[in-house]
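Below is a filled-in request sheet from our internal design queue. Each sheet records the structural input a requester submitted and the sequence that came back. We keep these sheets so that new team members can see what a complete request looks like end to end.

REQUESTER: design group, bay 2
PRIORITY: normal
MODE: inverse folding
CHAIN LENGTH: 326
BACKBONE (tokenized):
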């Protein structure tokens, strides 16, 4: 079983962490973000994941390799130009099975993909969207369906609408013959162009239960970290009810204050008397003696000087002077 994952974006909402690291390769708690997706896909029978790449594909391959042992194997396809979500899937057409999953590459989830696949087969759909229920729909476009799951219409974002609704979760089952109708080499959106064009012509959807997040902003990076270590999403990460994760090879001085929420990544160092509060220290980063890091993310290799205070910051590595006096 195949899945195509769209990972061509530049991760601009997480800069400076993503200047030299594509978002799917960015560490989330203890592993590259995309490994959560491949773990999820593998648990539903996917054995090959095709990555439709655009931004820093060589770096992505260096970090992710051929996939994790026992998980889906990874295959890389590189777009020479931006083709949009449907255009990218069309670009991969020669590498796809007759039926496959397609997913946006910024989805952190444990939704029931098997249920989505089964409904797709039962209805004979050409495309089936996974939907997720939200309490406040004002920031999302909504999808209306009938009792059989047929998609009736798409509604645009409306700030005056605040009630619950079903949103597109960026998770699909697609028929290869349907994607073949997308013009080759053109920039085409699956959400704005392709799905409206086949509404009433074999387009279905299903509400899925479980955890779902559109990962990719500073605030959602924090939320995702806490949700993982506090067990709100099903993963292989060791869960910590106190909201604190410390990598086995991290060095934390016993006089340091860690938490109430914190992630101390691989090889990170926290000096005497330092305070790490609601923050993430990525691999190889350091907080010097007496430093305070609050509501912040230290990118890989960032070093905060002794006695410094960092608050509400996302810091990438300083290539001139590794010591940040914030």
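RETURNED SEQUENCE:
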């Amino acid at each position: 079983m195949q899945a195509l994952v769209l990972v061509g974006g530049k991760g601009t909402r997480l800069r400076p962490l993503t200047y030299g690291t594509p978002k799917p390769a960015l560490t989330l708690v203890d592993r590259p973000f995309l490994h959560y997706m491949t773990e999820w896909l593998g648990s539903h029978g996917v054995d090959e994941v095709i990555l439709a790449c655009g931004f820093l594909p060589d770096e992505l391959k260096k970090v992710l390799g051929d996939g994790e042992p026992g998980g889906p194997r990874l295959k890389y396809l590189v777009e020479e130009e931006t083709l949009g979500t449907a255009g990218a899937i069309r670009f991969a057409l020669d590498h796809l099975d007759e039926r496959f999953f397609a997913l946006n590459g910024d989805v952190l989830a444990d939704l029931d993909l098997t249920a989505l696949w089964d409904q797709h087969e039962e209805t004979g759909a050409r495309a089936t969207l996974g939907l997720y229920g939200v309490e406040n729909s004002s920031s999302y476009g909504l999808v209306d369906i009938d009792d059989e799951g047929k998609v009736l219409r798409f509604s645009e974002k409306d700030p005056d609408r605040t009630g619950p609704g079903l949103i597109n979760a960026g998770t699909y089952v697609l028929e290869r013959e349907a994607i073949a109708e997308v013009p080759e080499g053109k920039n085409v959106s699956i959400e704005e162009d392709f799905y409206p064009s086949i509404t009433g012509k074999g387009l279905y959807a299903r509400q899925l239960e479980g955890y779902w997040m559109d990962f990719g902003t500073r605030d959602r990076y924090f939320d995702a970290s806490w949700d993982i270590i506090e067990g709100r999403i099903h993963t292989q990460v060791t869960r910590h009810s106190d909201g604190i994760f410390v990598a086995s090879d991290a060095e934390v001085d016993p006089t340091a204050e860690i938490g109430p929420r914190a992630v101390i990544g691989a090889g990170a160092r926290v000096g005497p008397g330092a305070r790490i509060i609601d923050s993430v220290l990525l691999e190889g980063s350091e907080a010097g003696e007496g430093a305070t890091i609050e509501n912040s993310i230290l990118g890989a290799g960032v070093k905060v000087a002794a006695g410094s205070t960092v608050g509400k910051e996302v810091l990438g590595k300083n290539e001139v002077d590794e010591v940040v006096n914030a």
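SHEET NOTES:
- DSSP finds seven helices and 27 strands in the chain.
- Residues 240-324 form a domain with the UDP N-Acetylglucosamine Acyltransferase; domain 1 fold (CATH 2.160.10.10).
FILED BY: M.R.
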